[in-house]
Design a protein that fits this description.
This protein is α+β, with helices and mostly antiparallel strands and about 450 residues long. It has 14 helices and 20 strands. The chain has 3 domains: about 5-105, Rossmann fold (3-Layer(aba) Sandwich), CATH 3.40.50; about 130-200, Dna Ligase, domain 1 (2-Layer Sandwich); about 205-450, ATP-grasp fold, B domain (D-amino Acid Aminotransferase, Chain A, domain 1), CATH 3.30.470.
């Protein structure tokens, strides 16, 4: 096992990794920007190194500074968390070249899955169903031909995309050239790569993903699915497990397909295989995230398994050993992402937290790095906390979440708590009848926001 791990991240995920390391008896090194000098991950790590100014490009994305921090502190491994460099094959290669263990998949697999179009082709060859679509678009003529073949409406998507950027819905041929240009510009600005491809657009989809883990000896397991359908700007807002849309037979069938596919490519560490479900409940592969997810706590609550500790153990050469048995999902878990943002427009709300009280009680978990007098800086993602609850069944989990939201106090900045309270009270949500456009009912001028 490692003696010391550097966490190349910030906020609640950095604190989450520190918690896992403390339980494993591993020393930790926090890195931080000048804006995060008084953050909790800095306070609770064994060592901390400032790696630059507030801007991500000068700090949390500065590979040279992070590697230097690992070398001067004697860290043996780097945990990237999620976001920032977590899915950077280049960063993983630099870690290897610096004799540091990157706690994640191999660079080759990350590069394959990081290119969404290449990932689609690979998964189709490995037997997973995919939506009709195209290769990378090279000309307007090619785009028109591929869109006609897939059938309108289609989605223009960034090949190196994520987080809802570089995406446009196209309903007619006349809209296509402008949508491609806009998506290419956004993709180039966000990811440094303008490549886009087309994919058949599902009008009323649900978003369902499978949590997986692979070791270095060829074994892959899945931990069931999460429902991530409620989103804004193609970013998840509420997640739950299990999904109301999958029966046990479907869960086992798709889970087996996912495991077999990932075993063939030699997948290691944590990952998530994401699907869109159409109106006929057919699942179609969309993409894979080669890292721990924001919503991993949902799966931990229904399995009782610490996925971050498992990640670290695998990176240190440990085996996955579940005795050949399927991993049971016990009860029902729901996560609400509490962000510092206007609950009506979703505009970010940076500033000082003047009061903070996290809810408690049985079946309630709060992952956060916020506290009273802490500052939510304007430079990073607006996530303040993940509020996760678990109940014996979905109705109890919803009731518990409603109670926990009512008892969650965050003052000084605007938060999304009010919109979460509306969601939990909504009869369609309670009955499990919703799609990715669900939030439109709560938001004025929703076409500009969702």
């Amino acid at each position: 096992m490692f003696k010391k791990i550097l966490i190349a991240n910030r906020g609640e995920i950095a604190l989450r990794v520190i918690c896992a390391c403390k339980e494993l008896g591993i020393e930790t090194v926090a890195v931080y920007s000048e804006a995060d000098r008084y953050s909790l991950h800095v306070r609770f790590a064994d060592e901390a190194v400032c790696i630059g100014p507030p801007r991500s490009a000068d700090s949390y994305l500065n590979v040279a500074s992070i590697i230097s921090a690992a070398e001067i502190t004697g860290a043996e491994a780097i945990h990237p968390g999620y976001g920032f460099l977590a899915e950077s094959a280049y960063f993983a290669e630099v870690c290897e070249a610096s004799n540091l263990v990157f706690i994640g998949p191999s660079p080759d697999v990350m590069r394959m899955m990081g290119d969404k179009n290449q990932a689609r082709r690979a998964m189709a060859e490995l037997g997973l169903p995919i939506l009709p679509g195209s290769d990378v678009i090279r000309s307007e003529a090619m785009a028109l031909e591929e869109a006609e073949r897939a059938g309108y409406p289609v989605m223009v998507k960034a090949a190196a995309g994520g987080g809802g950027r570089g995406m446009r819905i196209v309903r007619t041929p006349d809209e296509l050239p402008h949508a491609i240009q806009a998506a290419q510009n956004e993709a180039a600005a966000s990811f440094g790569a303008p490549d886009v491809y087309l994919e058949k657009h599902i009008a009323l989809p649900r978003h369902i993903e499978f949590q997986v883990m692979g070791d270095q000896y060829g074994k892959v397991v899945h931990f069931g699915e999460r429902e991530c359908t409620i989103q804004r700007r193609h970013q998840k807002l509420v997640e739950e497990s299990p999904s109301t849309q999958l029966d046990q037979q479907t869960r086992e069938r798709v889970g087996l397909q996912v495991v077999e596919a990932l075993q063939k490519i030699g997948y290691t560490s944590a990952g998530t295989v994401e699907f869109l479900m159409d109106e006929n409940r057919n699942l179609q592969f969309m993409e894979m995230n080669t890292r721990i997810q924001v919503e991993h706590a949902v799966t931990e609550m229904v399995t009782g398994i610490d996925l971050v500790k498992m990640q670290i153990n695998i990176a240190a050469g440990g085996h996955l050993d579940f005795g050949g048995k399927a991993i049971a999902l016990l009860g029902h878990a729901i996560e609400c992402r509490i962000c510092a943002e206007n609950p009506e427009t979703f505009a970010p709300s940076a500033g000082k937290v003047t009061a903070f009280h996290a809810p408690g009680g049985i079946g309630v978990r709060v992952d956060t790095a916020a506290y009273a007098e802490s500052v939510i800086p304007p430079y990073y993602d607006s996530l303040i906390a993940k509020l996760v609850v678990c109940g014996n069944d979905r109705p109890e989990a919803i009731t518990r979440m409603a109670r926990a939201l009512e008892m969650f106090i965050i003052e000084g900045v605007a938060t999304g708590i009010p919109i979460h309270q509306k969601i939990m009270a909504d009869p369609d949500f309670r009955s499990g009848e919703f799609d990715t456009h669900f939030l439109r009912r709560f938001i004025k001028n929703s076409d500009d926001i969702i």
